[in-house]
Amino acid sequence: MSNNVIKKEWRFNFDFSVASGETYGRFFKGLNDKKIIGNICNNRTFYPPKPFCDKTLKPPDAWLECDGAGIVEAFTICCEKSNGVKFSKTDKKPDVPYVLGVIKIKDSEHCIIHFISGFETKDVSEIADKIEIGMKVKPVWATKREGEILDIEYFEPVI
Amino acid sequence: MQDISYNKRFEYNWDVPFKVTLGESYFRFLDGLKNKKILGNICPKCNGLHVPARPFCDKCLVEITKWYETSGIVTIESFSVTYVKFLGLPDPPHITGIVRAENAVTSFLHQIGGIPYDEPKELDEKTKIGMKLKPVWAEKRIGDIQDILYFTPVDA
Ligand SMILES: [Zn+2]
To answer: Of the four listed, A50, B20, B129, B142, which is most buried by Cβ atoms within 10 Å?
Structure first.
């Protein structure tokens, strides 16, 4: 057996771009002003807003706005440095360990994924002790905001 | 009506290097390509021929140990002609096919080439499901699926 084919190496390298459209554009513009924009359809609220309601299939009735406080629905503690997925317009890759959370803002029908931080420790088991599903969190805003998702640096526990 | 004044473009890059450990069956299959051989293996229970060779039969869930060298001739099961340039793929027009070796119970993806045409659009008609193809081998073979450059009609 020659060793050169036992392990295969590949590389996916994609450059791509996404246009926000009006609905998500409003959401990102809101972040610039430290506001979380959502919308509502028949008492069902959406943060971030949806272009159309997934039940009625019609455009939602009205725009909403809130401070972004929410609860942790799920989370994972990441201990490996991400190797290649970069954020929009930045080379930023978070230092490990970091926490990715699925966060339900206010009474939203769906969640967003963002960082949860502010634990004042880098110890994985200490972080695990400090975070739990159902925990209240709120956004920590970047000082310099550009109307993009990292205008929220991360969500932190509400004490 | 959308209010396009809110529209904003976001640029991204995903650069993801990754590795796969082949295991014995896939190693032996790829190693066979070096010697211009397309190897399969046969399930001891259902007699199903697997090409490329696999570690176990997904129907019987038993280990496959009996090796078989195919003729290299494959049949087009399905295909798609691509007319636009895509990262990492050959220049258009190119044909991606799902091909089956002999009476194998599995099929696999590869490129189809060497079908003559004047206008690229003719490839839609000139490529036929059921067409018999043979491999065109790379000069320098390293034990990789690309050791087969593409499959071409048997009578070409
Ligand atoms: Zn079987």
So the answer is: A50
Quickly state the pLDDT bin for A85 (edges 50, 70, 90).
Answer: low
Candidate from A6, A12, A19 with C-beta closest to B16? A12
Query: Cα-Cα-Cα-Cα dihedral of B17, B22, B26, B29, to 10°?
Result: 70
> Which amino acid type is present at position B2?
Q
Q: Do B58 and B46 touch, CB atoms closer than 8 A?
A: no
Output the six-digit token pair for A10.
């590949």
Whole-model pTM: value is 0.68
Pair B39, B67: CB distance under 8 Å: yes
What is d(CA B74, CA B49) in angstroms, rounded to the nearest whole number? 13
Tell me the domain boundaries of chain B. 23-153
The most distant pair of C-alpha atoms in chain A lies apart, rounded to whole Å, by 66
> With an 8 Å Cβ cutoff, are B13 and A89 in contact?
no
B87/A14 touch (CB, cutoff 8 Å), yes or no: yes
Q: Above 60 in pLDDT, residue A119? A: yes
CATH of B23-153, one of 2.30.36.70, 3.30.830.10, 3.40.50.920, 2.40.50.840: 2.40.50.840
- For residue A151, give both structure tokens: 């205008």
Dihedral sign from CA coordinates of B124, B129, B133, B135: positive
> Which pairs count as long-range contacts for B134-137, CB under 8 Å and 24+ apart, including other chains?
B134/B72, B134/B73, B134/B74, B135/B36, B135/B38, B135/B72, B135/B74, B137/B36
CB A142: neighbour CB atoms within 10 A?
15
ipTM of the prediction greater than 0.95, yes or no? no
Q: What is the pLDDT of residue A89?
A: 55
